[in-house]
UniProtKB/TrEMBL annotation:
<dbReference type="InterPro" id="IPR011006">
    <property type="entry name" value="CheY-like_superfamily"/>
</dbReference>
<keyword id="KW-0597">Phosphoprotein</keyword>
<dbReference type="InterPro" id="IPR003594">
    <property type="entry name" value="HATPase_dom"/>
</dbReference>
<dbReference type="InterPro" id="IPR005467">
    <property type="entry name" value="His_kinase_dom"/>
</dbReference>
<dbReference type="InterPro" id="IPR036097">
    <property type="entry name" value="HisK_dim/P_sf"/>
</dbReference>
<feature type="domain" description="Response regulatory">
    <location>
        <begin position="572"/>
        <end position="682"/>
    </location>
</feature>
<protein>
    <recommendedName>
        <fullName>histidine kinase</fullName>
        <ecNumber>2.7.13.3</ecNumber>
    </recommendedName>
</protein>
<dbReference type="InterPro" id="IPR036890">
    <property type="entry name" value="HATPase_C_sf"/>
</dbReference>
<dbReference type="InterPro" id="IPR013656">
    <property type="entry name" value="PAS_4"/>
</dbReference>
<feature type="modified residue" description="4-aspartylphosphate">
    <location>
        <position position="622"/>
    </location>
</feature>
<dbReference type="InterPro" id="IPR003661">
    <property type="entry name" value="HisK_dim/P_dom"/>
</dbReference>
<dbReference type="InterPro" id="IPR001789">
    <property type="entry name" value="Sig_transdc_resp-reg_receiver"/>
</dbReference>
<dbReference type="Pfam" id="PF00512">
    <property type="entry name" value="HisKA"/>
</dbReference>
<dbReference type="Pfam" id="PF00072">
    <property type="entry name" value="Response_reg"/>
</dbReference>
<dbReference type="Pfam" id="PF08448">
    <property type="entry name" value="PAS_4"/>
</dbReference>
<dbReference type="InterPro" id="IPR035965">
    <property type="entry name" value="PAS-like_dom_sf"/>
</dbReference>
<dbReference type="InterPro" id="IPR004358">
    <property type="entry name" value="Sig_transdc_His_kin-like_C"/>
</dbReference>
Length: 686
């Protein structure tokens, strides 16, 4: 850009500035009057600023820039209100008056309140504001030629004040002496009564002064008080280490160094406190260095509070990380369940039909076993993500733990001495018994692996009452605490910090999924309890599973038998799922059960088929699909056909968003599990 061709630093800034964001637009589109005025002010040595247009866009020269402090260079090319906002109520009437009347406004030592160095101050200026005509004769802007007089005005003000004070001092010398004496007494009183610690030592480490607060601090941490004239060396002679620390820091101050330091002092037999101390050189009236003094404050409580805050912030970050990981693993598990559904269904069909010879039977059985292991892995992922379906009922934890003793002993092997301790009268807890059994078994296996040379494993349960909030975010109340303690290798702090993260494992490759503790953590949180871990390297680990106490009577733990029921053929089944492979395997199962199957890839597709005349007897639908959910589809069709049987299938394995009165089945599933769900559905009449 050729314009402006010169103009010092501001001219260069104008040439380099991106004017697309300025109300003035690019300089090559400016009016000739504006260009001429800008060229004039850039070349001038006086402090000049031009406010152009109705928005008073600021353009100024090198001489003016220092006067606006930190507002330069952001003020260049911007409306004045953005950078002169604090004085706009004062400045705007002056500018608008010049624009409207075309009359020049001039003033000497005109005060303006400005914020140019990060704080507000009153400045003084000689000003001359003149209207500048545009090419069409209208007022284009206001040219402000200014000269800051702040330093002179303040100097004259201070001079007048000093002269008045001198006259007053001469007139009332005796009164001033009395007032000064009273002032010294007041200052001494303040020093003596303040909570801050103030003390001074001479070059021989003897106290020249010490206030009561500082003497009290010595009393607290050493059990004795120093007095003026005492020697620091004699005061701490019976504590050589403390004397060395004190003289090391005082020697710097007595050598003339001014500094601030934070250190801990005190005898552990009394108290240890942390002090923030500011050291200054102490000089005689003639400037000779005669010692040093410090002003200090006790910051122990503040630092402890900061540490607690940092710990709380770290706990929050950890909780947020675990929540994010839970959402991720929950989504992965959902997709994995959709992938497993056709695999499990197909292998189940091969086994039921006895396809192939003996070798094929073994291969199919191995694949089915692998699919079941994958299904278990997904359940652990869902447990960590807190999305597995739980049937929380009052559970006799004491009996459950006691009954598992033999199973745990056989699992851990003869090298591990297993002790089970469950007291009589233990209250029932709200829990899913099957999931709790799996959790205890997982913790026991972890304990076994932590004791490769053998050791002791103690599994216990006891009632615990919390009267205050617990470090694991447990609210006050009564809990049943299941403890699994081993004498194994333990964990260091870094390992402990990651222990409940999914897929984190200290075991070798192929020896663990890293989901055991994360599953138990998710289970405890979903039940309203918590998981706590205490561990010391070489001394073992104790894992505690806290479960809320039930206020209802414990019921029997009903085993869920594998269903052998096969529903009678009942006509047409409308099968809805957005995954083609899931639809294919499920449709084959339904046909084997005697249904005529109509497939739909979405809820909207299913509604259209019903609108076209389809009258199904059974609706089997996925829950989460693009567009309308399976639950909403089921409710919409039930309103039209109350006799329609509805089964909602979910890969997420949670109840969120599914109406409680709709029957549900979790992916992946085998033909007999589907048959059992349909039989129960037919029995219930829905």
């Amino acid at each position: 850009m050729g314009f402006p061709s010169d103009g010092g630093e501001l001219g260069a800034m104008m040439r380099a500035l991106d004017w697309s964001g300025s109300p003035l637009g690019p300089p090559n589109q400016w009016s000739q009057a504006l260009k001429t005025t800008v060229s004039m002010l850039l070349a001038a040595q006086a402090q000049i600023v031009l406010f152009w247009g109705p928005q008073y866009v600021a353009l100024y020269n090198d001489a003016y820039a220092p006067g606006i402090g930190a507002n330069h260079p952001r003020a260049l090319g911007r409306p004045a209100i953005e950078n002169w906002g604090e004085l706009w109520d004062d400045l705007e009437p002056l500018l608008s008056g010049v624009r409207q009347t075309r009359k020049t406004f001039a003033a000497k030592d005109r005060p303006f309140y400005v914020e140019r160095h990060g704080y507000g101050e009153t400045s003084y200026w000689d000003v001359s504001y003149s209207a500048v005509p545009d090419d069409d004769g209208s007022v284009g802007g206001v040219l402000c030629i200014v000269s800051e007089t702040t330093e002179r005005v303040l100097g004259e003000t201070q001079l007048r004040a000093s002269e008045a004070r001198y006259r007053e001092l001469n007139a009332t010398l005796e009164q001033r002496v009395a007032e000064r004496t009273a002032e010294r007494h007041l200052l001494a009183t303040i020093v003596e009564t303040t909570d801050g610690q103030i003390q001074a030592l001479d070059l021989d480490y003897r106290w020249l002064a010490i206030n009561a607060s500082c003497a009290d601090a010595y009393q607290r941490i050493y059990g004795k008080r120093p007095r003026v004239g005492d020697s620091l060396h004699e005061f701490l002679a019976d504590r050589p280490e403390h004397l060395a620390a004190a003289t090391a820091i005082w020697s710097r101050a007595l050598a003339g160094e001014a500094f601030t330091n934070i250190e801990e002092f005190g005898d552990i037999n009394f108290d240890r406190r942390v002090y923030e101390m500011k050291f200054e050189t102490l000089r005689a009236p003639d400037g000779t260095r005669i010692g040093a003094f410090l002003t200090g404050i006790d910051v122990t409580d503040r630092l402890e509070e900061q540490a607690r805050l940092a710990q709380a912030e770290e706990a929050l970050r950890q909780a947020q990380k675990m929540e994010a990981m839970g959402q991720l693993t929950g989504g992965v598990a959902h997709d994995f369940n959709n992938l497993l559904t056709p695999i499990v269904g197909l292998l189940d069909m091969f086994q039921r039909k006895g396809i192939g010879g003996e070798r094929e039977h073994r291969l199919i059985a191995g694949a089915a076993q692998a699919a079941e292991r994958a299904k278990t892995l997904v359940q652990r992922l869902l447990a960590f993500a807190r999305r597995q379906p739980l049937q929380a009922v009052p559970v006799d934890i004491g009996r459950l733990v006691a009954d598992m003793g033999e199973l745990i002993s056989s699992t851990t092997g003869p090298q591990i001495q297993v002790t089970v301790d469950t007291p009589e009268g233990l209250p029932e807890a709200m829990a899913d018994p099957n999931q709790i059994e799996m959790a205890i078994l997982n913790l026991s296996v972890n304990a076994r692996d932590a004791m490769p040379e053998g050791g002791k494993l103690r599994i216990s349960a006891k009632a615990r009452t919390l009267e205050h909030a617990h470090g694991s975010d447990l609210v006050p109340g009564t809990y049943v605490c299941i403890s699994v303690a081993d004498t194994g290798i333990g964990m260091d702090e870094e390992t402990l910090a990651h222990a409940v993260e999914p897929f984190f494992s200290t075991k070798g490759i192929g020896q663990g999924t890293g989901l055991g503790l994360s599953m138990v953590h998710g289970l405890a949180s979903q039940l309203g309890g918590a998981l706590t871990i205490k561990s010391t390297v070489g001394a073992g680990t104790t894992v505690e599973l806290w479960l809320p106490v039930s206020h209802a009577a414990a019921g029997a733990i009903d085993a869920v038998p594998r269903a052998n029921l096969r529903p009678l053929p009942t006509g047409t089944a409308l099968l809805v799922d957005d995954e083609p492979l899931v639809r294919m395997s499920t449709a084959e199962m339904l046909r084997e059960l005697g249904y005529w199957v109509v497939e739909a890839s979405s809820a909207e597709d299913a509604l259209q088929r019903v609108k076209d005349g389809l009258r199904p007897n059974l609706l089997i639908t996925d829950h989460l699909m693009p567009g309308m959910s399976g639950t909403d589809l089921g409710l919409a069709l039930r309103n039209q056909y109350p006799e329609l049987q509805i089964l909602v299938v979910s890969g997420y394995a949670n109840n969120e968003g599914i109406t409680p009165d709709l029957s549900r089945l979790t992916k992946p599933f085998r033909s007999d599990e589907l048959a059992a769900s349909l039989a129960n559905l037919a029995k219930a009449g829905r």
